[in-house]
Amino acid sequence: MIKITAAENSDRFFLSEVCIDTVQTYDSILPGAFEKQAKKFSEEGLPKTYDIGIVKLEDLKLGFVGFVRLDNETLYLTAVYLLEVYQRQGYGKKIINTIEKEAYKEGIKRVVLLVHSKATWAIDFYEKNGFYVIEIEENKIKEYADSRMAKYFLPSTILMGKMLKCFGE
């Protein structure tokens, strides 16, 4: 069963490892971004502006997620990254389901995320998991959730989201 546990500062090297492992996937559209983030994790530790969860299967670390609550009803998913060896095995869907169930228990009604407009594989993945495009225009993305998205906006991204529905107990 997939578990997401709060990251500790000692996880910073694992976070860095996941970022380095992701370079090949994203380097053509975000050159240098994941090397930079890997260095930041290993040197500075956990981010201050959002929470990180370590994705585990039993005691095996598969990857990490990042998230922050924008308001009482909206969770912004800042990151979902798996080590390459665990990609395309159904873990992504299980991670999204786990996040949604936990968020729903906390009163969250919607999950939103930014995805690079050229990361068609990521857009396809989120669409297959029930997410839809909310906005493509930079100014409107920044205004989302009473402008709380402005500090998280990244160039060339689109805002996607999903309304959460009741989960069986």
TrEMBL record:
It comes from the Bacteria. GO terms for molecular function: acyltransferase activity, transferring groups other than amino-acyl groups. InterPro entries: Acyl_CoA_acyltransferase, GNAT_dom, N-term/lysine_N-AcTrnsfr. CDD domains: NAT_SF. Keywords: Acyltransferase, Transferase. Residues 13-165 form the N-acetyltransferase domain. PANTHER family: N-ALPHA-ACETYLTRANSFERASE, N-ALPHA-ACETYLTRANSFERASE 50. This is GCN5-related N-acetyltransferase. The lineage of its organism: Bacteria, Bacillati, Bacillota, Clostridia, Peptostreptococcales.
